[in-house]
Amino acid sequence: MAKPLSILFVSSEVIPFAKTGGLADVSAALPQVVRELGHDIRIIMPKYAAVSDRKFKIHDIKRLTDMPIQVGEKTFLGSVKSSFLTNIKTKVQVYFISNEQLYCRSDLYVDPKTKESWPDNDDRFMFFSRGVIETLIRLGWKPDIIHLNDWQSGLIAALLKTEYADEPLFKNTKVVFTVHNAAYQGVFPKESFVKTGLPAKTFKMDGVEFHGQVNLMKAGLMYADAITTVSPTYAKEVRSSKDFGYGLEEVFKKKARKTYGILNGMDETLWNPEVDKLITKTYSAETIEDKQANKKALCDHFKLPYDPKVPVIGIVSRLADQKGFDLIEEKLEDLMKMDLQLVVLGSGEKKYEDLFTKAAKKFKKKIGAHIGFDEGLAHLIEAGADMFLMPSKYEPCGLNQMYSLRYGTLPIVRSTGGLADTVEDLNAKPKTGTGFVFEKYQAKQMLDAVKRAVSAFADEKIWTAAMKRAMAKDYSWGASAEKYIELYKNLLKKK
Ligand code: ADP
Q: Residue with the nearest Cα to atom 20 of ligand 1?
């Protein structure tokens, strides 16, 4: 093999340590596959309250204790700790940057009491960004690639190209910035600009300025050597309109030649019905009838009557506008007139939490809702439901539709982002279809797709064949990890 690469993977959440969404899944799975391919990849993330030293066998790195890190006028002390991801044969080292005041809180980004972002998120992630660079310098570790993810680490790209431009350690280092969701940009008032420590000349259109404010995602986009989005379709969408680019569409357009759409994969060590320890009965395409035991367990969990002939539709999601719940709200009564059941697991915006809590009370025999975050239940829904509904307004990649395919739980999705890249419509393509796809963001179109799904479900032969095709799809990380490695290597060839 050619010389292995050294890569630092920077993320604000990594499963099993901390997770709010798909970013955490990707941040564990991709590095592990890259490691298995023989590269020295290490991960760095903040040490939140939930990241328990004992549970995760985390230990201190003595020489990286109490590093003073300047954020504007404040100096915070950061200490670095270390542990490993051990799902694979070869371990992946994980560094944690800790500071009690900044990270020891009940939630990663949002105050659960107000449901608003923590007021000092600028301090928290500017500290993290500087901490990452200082950690590398003190370790004397020289990565070929620094792979940043989303706004929480965007500042690192700008700092490396300005304040640290002459730092010998990073002379040959290239920076990749991955956009997992362009709607969350880390925008802060202009007063926060001084906290970045960036030179004044970067506060401009061609820098980190965004309508008079500081935008940390823009910092990543403007200063990285390459940008990736988490699906090919999303790469085109973010430069197409404000509905996808959230005000950064012109920046995405300008950076189109540096931008690559690489589909996320799924972690087969965690999401595979043949070995999943969190479901009632494991199954494969050959033992597909064993999926029923999971359906029964799922209905029991939600105290819904179990009937193999009545399709169960699953939802596991952050309850955010992005995910299309207003379409479900609009057609809830129509859905409830159909012979189907709906199970929902999610948390997030209060209006959607209320929507599903109330609906579950009103339609006791048809809807089950669990408001909260529950990894085990998420797996049981994937295994037990017959269909999985994702009517997203936009979906950068989406992991749940891939998990659903793997579990033979046919997805009903809107044609956007990664959903468009992974699900083929069964009516349009009866021989190859794996789910039900609708085009326009309209409640009626969603309802029609559900109706098509329910009618296909009634034909056991058609349904079983589609389930088997879905289960045979390979959306594991292999091919996508190779694409990242190719991108890293191509960047390193450039002077
Ligand atoms: P996003 O990153 O936009 O939230 P993805 O589909 O990419 O959407 O990833 C969502 C991930 O988070 C999946 O692994 C999904 O199972 C998980 N998830 C979302 N909400 C919950 C919840 N309430 N309980 C358990 N897992 C959840």
A: 317
Residue nearest to atom 2 of ligand 1 (CA): 22
pLDDT in tens, 258-275: 999 999 999 888 899 999
For residues 457 and 483, state if they share a domain: no
Distance 318 CA to ligand 1 centre (A): 6
The number of domains in the chain is 2
pLDDT digits (tens, 9 = 90+) for 277-302: 999 999 999 999 999 999 999 999 99
CATH number of the domain encompassing residue 429? 3.40.50.2000
d(CA 386, CA 464): 11
For residues 156 and 54, membership in a common domain is answered with yes
d(CA 13, CA 24): 5
**Atom 13, ligand 1: which residue's CA is nearest?**
22
Which residues are within 8 A (CB) of 450 and not within 5 positions of it... i.e. 6 or more apart? 313, 335, 338, 340, 387, 389, 412, 436
pLDDT band at 1 (very low <50, low <70, confident <90, very high): low
> From the alpha carbon of 345, which atom of ligand 1 is closest?
23
Task: Assess whether 469 and 329 both reside in one domain.
Answer: yes
Mutate to test the pocket of ligand 1, among 20, 25, 181, 357 (most ligand atoms within 8 A of CB): 25
Question: Are residues 203 and 349 part of one domain?
Answer: no
- Measured CA to CA in angstroms, residue 91 lies from 15, 141, 464 at distances of 15, 18, 39
**Looking at the structure, do residues 90 and 171 belong to the same domain, yes or no?**
yes
> What is the tens place of the pLDDT at every residue in 131-164?
999 999 999 999 999 999 999 999 999 999 999 9
Cβ atoms of residues 105 and 118 within 8 Å: yes
Asked whether residue 322 is domain-assigned, the answer is: yes
Residue 372 sits in the same domain as residue 223: no
Asked whether the predicted pLDDT for residue 462 surpasses 70, the reply is: yes
Residue 55 lies in a domain: yes
Q: What is the mean pLDDT of the segment spanning 60-70?
A: 97
Cα of 398 to ligand 1 centre, how many Å?
8
User: Which residue range is the domain that position 57 belongs to?
Assistant: 6-265+478-493
Residues with CB under 6 A from ligand 1: 21-23, 25, 316-318, 345-347, 373-375, 378, 397-400
